[in-house]
UniProtKB/TrEMBL annotation:
Residues 9-107 form the Chaperone DnaJ C-terminal domain. The keyword Cell wall biogenesis/degradation does not apply. SUPFAM superfamilies: HSP40/DnaJ peptide-binding domain. This is Chaperone DnaJ C-terminal domain-containing protein. It comes from Punica granatum (Pomegranate). PANTHER family: DNAJ-LIKE-2, ISOFORM A-RELATED. InterPro entries: DnaJ_C, DNJA1/2-like, HSP40/DnaJ_pept-bd. GO terms for molecular function: Hsp70 protein binding; unfolded protein binding; zinc ion binding. Gene3D superfamilies: Urease metallochaperone UreE, N-terminal domain. Keywords: Metal-binding, Repeat, Zinc, Zinc-finger. The keyword Zinc-finger applies. It comes from the Eukaryota.
Length: 118
């Protein structure tokens, strides 16, 4: 397909990525492409942005949830613990267990949008 004649117009397109958008989600800017749909057309095509998802060293994504695995020692499981972590948006979270509180293997605690597996 031929490029439009003359000086190419420069545009800035703002792309808003919302929390929870899925892998391969498509964001479409209709009629914003630099190329015409055919050599006889003046209608331009669409710009399509497809989201990629990269692995994170701490968090794993399952559907709409983020998971974090943390190994507790026997002492921490029996005597209590505090786990401080920083969420992806920079928010600090404190997860606490009191002495004597039972932490079961593969127990799930859900805080905000993070699931922590023990």
């Amino acid at each position: 397909m031929p490029w439009r004649q003359g000086d190419p117009e420069k545009k800035v397109l703002d792309v808003y990525i919302e929390k929870g958008m899925r892998y391969k989600h498509k964001i479409v800017f209709e009629g914003q492409a630099d190329e015409a749909l055919s050599s006889t057309s003046t209608i331009t095509g669409d710009i399509v942005i497809t989201l990629e998802q990269w692995d994170h060293p701490k968090f794993k994504r399952k559907s709409d949830d983020l998971y974090l695995e943390h190994t507790l020692s026997l002492t921490e499981a029996l005597c209590g613990f505090q786990l401080s972590l920083t969420h992806l948006d920079g928010q600090r979270l404190l997860i606490k267990s009191n002495p004597g509180e039972v932490i079961k293997h593969a127990g799930k605690t859900s805080l905000a949008e993070v699931c922590v597996l023990f």
